[in-house]
Amino acid sequence: MGRKAYEPRPEEIPSGLCECGCGQETAIAKVTRRSLRHFKGHPMPCLRGHWNKPKGPDHYAWRGVQHWLGYVYEYAPEHPAAYKSGQRKGYVLQHRLVWERANGRMLRPNEVVHHINGVRGDNRPDNLVALTNAAHCGKHRGDHRQGDPDVRQKQSERMKQVWAERHAGKRPMPKH
Q1: Which tens digit of pLDDT belongs to each residue from 129-172?
Q2: Domain coordinates of the chain in residue numbers?
Q3: CA dist., res. 50 & res. 91, Å (int)
Q4: Distance between CA atoms of 52 and 49, rounded to whole angstroms?
């Protein structure tokens, strides 16, 4: 006996209109791929090639684009700070946009947005403050040297473990 076909819940089934915002009708899926929200016999969520179009805050998958360092990007191609080319074309760091909306003005060229609690993905307006580049550097100067002793101890233990793994050949040196 084969495996029973996955039956999607009603809220998982796409509407039949392209979710990129173009409003065109989508094709019917021939196979089920849950990760892509393709369910055999049901409409697909997007037309081919439209999956990477910008999605607004009301879209089911909207979370912005997460950077590996913890920052979040938001699609805003008209913004002066938007990337002009490459993989992030049209995206802006979300904390900049949130601060500008909350304060009713654009950031000046010598200003950066600082996360008060240090969590790069926490873009609540009350967690963001604009600082000059110099003030921001001053705020972070010595963070790696004068931090919490417990955190330094954990980092030290972790680095000892990493170097032991490299010495044993279990972890290769990173390529630059």
Answers
A1: 999 988 888 887 766 555 566 767 777 787 888 788 777 876 66
A2: 1-53, 65-140
A3: 17
A4: 7
Give the closest residue to 99 by CA, choosing from 77, 69, 122, 78. Answer: 122
Question: What is the rounded distance in angstroms from the CA atom of residue 71 to the CA atom of residue 45?
Answer: 27
For residue 99, the model assigns a pLDDT of 94
For the chain, report the end-to-end CA distance as a whole number of angstroms.
Answer: 51
Comparing C-alpha atoms, which of 26, 76, 79 is closest to residue 51?
26
Is 54:48 a contact under the CB 8 Å cutoff? no
C-alpha–C-alpha distance, residues 144 and 24, integer Å: 52
CA gyration radius, the chain: 23
Q: How far apart are CA 141 and CA 114, in angstroms?
A: 14
H/E stretch holding 93: strand 91-93
Whole-model pTM? 0.49
Q: Which residues contact 120 (CB under 8 A, 6 or more apart)?
A: 69, 70, 71, 72, 95
d(CA 130, CA 112) in angstroms, rounded, equals 6
Instruction: Return d(Cα 98, Cα 114) in angstroms, integer.
Output: 12
Q: CB under 8 Å to 135, separation ≥6 — which residues?
A: none
Token couple for 146: 């004068």
For 113-124, the pLDDT digits (tens) are 998 888 887 888
